[in-house]
Every structure is written in structure tokens, then in C-alpha cells.
Amino acid sequence: MIFDFSQFRHSGLRITPLRKELFLLFQSFKSPITIPEIQVYLQKKGKNPNITSLYRQVETFVALGFLQKVHVQSGIIHYEFSLSHHHHFVCQKCEEITCISDENLENS
Asked: Within its chain, how far is the Cα of 90 from the centroid?
């Protein structure tokens, strides 16, 4: 799903460079990611946002329903851009997360 930046305005948010960069980042990842992974990605692009601002922005997006939290057994929270309900498979050895969209899971 491609994010429409007009959704920011409907939620009363300005489209700041960090917000725009975060949503472009979340659209490019196919699986949930952590705040440290977000920070590394942004640093590779020459950006170095304050970690507090980064957490605040991500939590704002969660509260508005733009992002979802994915909890894994280790307690590390991952985030993903998803506006539809789905399940996740988490490898118990490496904790890699795979999104699962299967209507049969919903019906059972």
C-alpha cells in the first residue's frame, strides 16, 4: 500500500522532513523494523535525527493508526506500516519476522 501524505493533514500533522523520510522508509521495508534499524538506515542517508524525536514520531504514528507495533519474545518492539490486520511468523532462533496474510487464519 502506498501512503498518501494527505493523511498527515487529515490527522492535523505537518509533513516534516523526518515524517516524510520515516514513511518512505517504512514503505521500503517488507517486514517490521526496530528503532535502532531505523536509526542506522537514516544515518546511511546522511541524516541523524535525535533518538527522542525518532521515538516520539514513531509513537505518534502508532497512536494515529499509521504504524503497528509487533512484539517479539525478546521484548524488542518492531514497527511496520500496515493498515490491515495480519499475523506474523517469528523464527525462535534468529527472531526474523515474516508477515503472513492468510484468510484461512482469520476464519479459524
From this structure: 16
